[in-house]
Amino acid sequence: MSRRQVPEINTGSMADIAFLLLIFFLAATTMDSGLMRQLPAIPDPNVPQDVNKINDRNILEVKVNKDNLLLVEGQLTEFSQLREIAHDFIVNADDSPNKPEKEIVSLPYFGDVAVTKAVISLQNDIGTKYGVYIAVQNELIAARTQLRDNLARQEFGIPYERLDEERKGAIDDFFKVPISEAEPKRIGGDN
Amino acid sequence: MARFVKTGRKTIKALNTSSLPDIVFMILFFFMAVTTMRETDVMVNVRIPDATEGKVLEKKSLASFIYIGEPIEAFQALYGTEPKIQLNDTFKEINDIQDFIAQEREQLNEADKTKMLVVLKIDRDTRMGVVTDVKQALRRASALKIMYANTNVDKIVLQ
User: Fold this and answer.
1) N or C: which end of chain A has fewer CB within 10 A?
2) Quick check: B18 and A12 in contact, CB under 8 A?
3) What ipTM does this complex have?
4) How many folded domains does chain B comprise?
5) Under DSSP, is residue A71 helix (H, G, I), strand (E, B) or coil?
6) Structural domain includes residue B10
7) Is B144–A142 a contact, with Cβ atoms under 8 angstroms apart?
8) Where are the domains of chain A?
9) B63 lies in which domain range?
10) Could you give the dihedral angle defined by the CA atoms of residues A158, A162, A167 and A169, in that order, rounded to the nearest 10 degrees?
11) Which residues in chain A have Cβ-Cβ distances shorter than 8 Å to B33?
């Protein structure tokens, strides 16, 4: 018998096929992104509530009514100004008595520093549009993130995002500024 | 020096591409591994809001999804155009969220149960009433870690 030669399979188009599959999976991969929030736990009715109310000057009251209008500390405010207002409120550069107090706290990396006691309270009406609510929340988070980032660059010379957990923790304690979502209530009347 | 001149004809050898499929397959497998196919059909129209501060969801396996929005056209005859809550493959009510969360939590390993994350995919035109109700239900179900899904943009334009 003569030697039978098995012809080699042409694999030239293999790459093309693989590319096709690759592109399909590339297109099918979706990255979800969003604003991370922590909801407060439901208070236990058997446990007495903390009666220490937060001092009024420490709270930045942000309300969005059913017509999607923004009220900051009772003042009608443009959405575009919100970030700056939140920023100025947290920093309280001139130690104004209407803006949040500072408290001397000992933090790792920073030593004894004056840390703001600011709290942002976000309230909405049941008629508020979700998109507006998220936009407002986004601005408030952005103001805080920016302050943290500035501090990280100033203190460690690198952006906040690239810090290790320990340093991030120290900066988080420096600008804690909880953004609290108040218990739901109707602020814009029925509708 | 004469050596270099010796070959009179200049022939450029064809580039060896035999390892190209291997490389492409490697990338392919990577994307196959990270892709999770959507298991639920979304039955509501959801245009998630824009934001600039969104963080990418890293561990999809820990996430449960709640969709809220106007039912898609095929279901409008049956359910109307009021925003509905979709859990898994069906429209549900606020009261069902607690069971849904318990069920989803059951599917996670013991170690991951505390890390459970609820991703809220809510249409931007939804009124906050229903959103607040869902949030309260999540608090009652002690699913406190939530994520408001959004599209990342450079600047928010409110319409």
Assistant:
1) N
2) no
3) 0.77
4) 1
5) strand
6) no
7) no
8) 56-181
9) 44-152
10) 130
11) none
